[in-house]
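The authors assume throughout that readers already know how a fold can be written as discrete tokens. For illustration, here is how one protein appears when written out as sequence plus structure tokens.
>
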Amino acid sequence: MFVVLIFSYLLLSIVLADEKSYDRRYDYFEVDYFVNNHRTACEKCTPLQKKFTKKAFDAFKTSLPESHAELKRKYDPRNMYYDTFETAIAI
């Protein structure tokens, strides 16, 4: 019985130790592909993806307006795509 208790404790500590970081599923997500892809304005996004994206962009604009403006200048210096993208993700 003592061995089962020790084994259970070790298993529990391994599981809890693993939860200290986020899921590694998106560690190799190719964000540059989407950032540099000016051909689409989320045209294949599902409504849920649009909702998530809008919420993330709105939070970024509100919380970090200087960084948001800097990234907008960097990736859309002629302001050709951003407004279309914001319209596309508006639900």
